[in-house]
Amino acid sequence: MTATAAQDLAGKPAKTRRFRSVLDPLLFLGGFLVIWEAVVRVTGIHSVILPSPGDVIEILVTRFPILVRSMGQTMVTVLAGFALGGLLGVAAGLAASRSERVRRAVYPFLVGLYVVPKAVLIPLMLLWWGVDFRYKLVVTVLLVFFPVTENTMRGLDGVDREMIELSRSLRTGEWFVFRKVRLPFILPYVLAGLRIGLTEAFIGAVLAEVLAPSAGIGSRIVEAGVFSNTAFILAGITVIAVTGLATYFLLVLVEDRLTRWY
Amino acid sequence: MGIELRNLGKTFHSDAIDVEALADISLTVGESQFVSIIGPSGCGKSTLLRILAGLLPPTKGTVEVDGVEVTEPLGNVGFVFQAPTLFKWRTILGNVMFPYEALAGRGEADGDKASYEQRARHMLEMAGIAEFADAHPKQLSGGMQQRAAICRALVHDPAILLMDEPFGALDEFTRERMNLELLRIWDDSRKTVVFVTHHIPEAVFLSDRVIVMSPRPGRVIGDVEVGFARPRQPALRDDISFLEKVIEIRKMIWFDAASME
Question: Which of A160, A172, A262 sits opposite B85 (nearest CB)?
Fold first, then answer.
């Protein structure tokens, strides 16, 4: 019998499960690094093309302050864009569900905006504002906005009709139904939208920094590229990945807590 | 409270066709009567219940509750659906307290929160789920969830209890047990109950009267008095007079179906 993903840790004690869920990814990472190191040594490939894991770790240690400071600058954009895009997304989702007509009129426009790669909006914004914080924020907000709006609308569409009937049979007003039924009902949908939005926020913020170098980790990576400092590029990518991973898991933790009983 | 339906009709309009869900229903439900409405799917039972509650306006005719025409949601009804329809994010007690919040919101709750909570806990006790007051719906079985839903429908002491196939999703054994428990709880207050079902023995076991409906469009084809003494005992189900009632209703439905073909 072959073990499926779900079966693997089923039935094992919680402690073992937690331990293994940390150990297994670390084992994979270790294996990945060993193979990488081996490839570099065996092929003798030049460190500008592919530095060894050791080179990258060295940069991570020696250039730690600048890497962290740059990532911090990026995180300001990520979090501001995430918060603003999330808020606007929920608001737009709620507004769209109030009126079928508004929704019909606006929805194709929103999808159109979503499929346009946000990168092409950057020249336009640079033209308007020059290189400052605003273009990064706008790109990030736009990326976060759509999945949150979409999920909020889906959630509102899915509200159990009988829950609303039950409330209305007690002569409650629309505001009561909204607060006590619709809003708590859509919580898991909104949180799932925000989870997608968060990854989009990282994409948006770093993309903006790469395309129009200014502050932030994306811009430092572009500079390193100019100086053929490949190890720094890879170190920068590692920092983005680790920060993104940590933020994502934090959000998943919050999500699990809030939707524990759903 | 008594309910009076006069020449009630309901037609749903959609793009392509008009569907006549109910046609010319006239019916009187007396105070404290337990009335079941039975009939095959598509006979407009659920629609009728929603019109009674004031959730849907009728196309024709009128509904009166205690002599007053129903034109908007009644407010003093308890509603139980086939699915427990509990709010997953609330505890069981929180769910049972929902009607209090609705009524208190416009100053119509009789009694303060503490007295309501006492009543809610008492209801849960009667339903045998007192120890789950602080649990969440997903921690309870389907049958227990439905008991909580019944508590929620009764906590605000509504004048009328409307039940839309409340035990339709339960297995036969649980259903029979829930029938008994519903009667036990109902016996405490003797509210007017309109109980929709497509399960004939259930309708006979619970009711003072069984209204038999026919589909497309929904109309009343029979009105059967069930005179068995209360409180009803489980052994009633094996009684020959009980089976005769069941057969009488079954024949009505089959005869009607045959005449349609």
Answer: A160
Domains of chain B: 3-74+160-260 (3.40.50.300), 86-158 (no CATH)
pLDDT in tens, A156-203: 999 999 999 999 999 888 899 999 999 999 999 999 999 999 999 999
Q: Does A262 lie at the interface with B, CB-CB under 8 angstroms?
A: yes
Give me the residue spans of the domains in chain A. 1-45, 52-258
Neighboring chain B residues of A171 at a CB cutoff of 8 Å:
72-75, 102, 106
Q: What pLDDT does residue B229 have? A: 84
ipTM surpasses cut 0.90: no
* Residues of chain A with C-beta less than 8 angstroms from the C-beta of B50: 165
Q: Which of residues 134-163 of A touch B (CB under 8 A)?
A: 160, 162-163
How far is residue A81 from each of residues A106, A126, A216, A248, B22, measured CA to CA in Å? 22, 18, 14, 15, 54
Q: Is A174 touching B (CB cutoff 8 A)?
A: no
Give the 3-state secondary structure of residue B145: helix
The DSSP line for chain A is -PPPHHHHTTTS-HHHHHHHHHHHHHHHHHHHHHHHHHHHHHHT--TTT---HHHHHHHHHHTHHHHHHHHHHHHHHHHHHHHHHHHHHHHHHHHHHH-HHHHHHHHHHHHHHHHS-GGGGHHHHHHHH-SSHHHHHHHHHHHHHHHHHHHHHHHHHTS-HHHHHHHHHTT--HHHHIIIIIHHHHHHHHHHHHHHHHHHHHHHHHHHHHHS--SSHHHHHHHHHHTT-HHHHHHHHHHHHHHHHHHHHHHHHHHHHHTTT-
Q: Determine whether the interchain pair B88/A180 forms a contact, defined as Cβ–Cβ distance below 8 Å.
A: no
Q: Which fold has domain A52-258?
A: MetI-like fold (1.10.3720)
Mutate to test the interface with B, among A161, A164, A166, A261 (most CBs of B within 10 A): A166
Q: Rounded to whole angstroms, how far apart are CA atoms B24 and B27?
A: 10
Tell me the count of A-B CB pairs closer than 8 A. Answer: 64
pLDDT band at A7 (very low <50, low <70, confident <90, very high): low
- CB within 8 Å: A180 and B50: no
Going residue by residue through chain B, which has 261 residues, state the pLDDT in tens, using 9 for 90 and above: 688 888 888 888 887 888 888 888 888 898 889 999 998 877 888 899 999 988 999 998 989 888 888 888 888 889 999 899 999 999 999 999 999 999 888 777 777 888 889 989 988 988 888 999 999 999 998 889 998 999 999 888 888 999 999 988 888 888 888 888 888 888 888 889 999 998 999 999 999 999 999 888 888 888 989 988 888 888 898 889 999 999 999 988 888 777 766
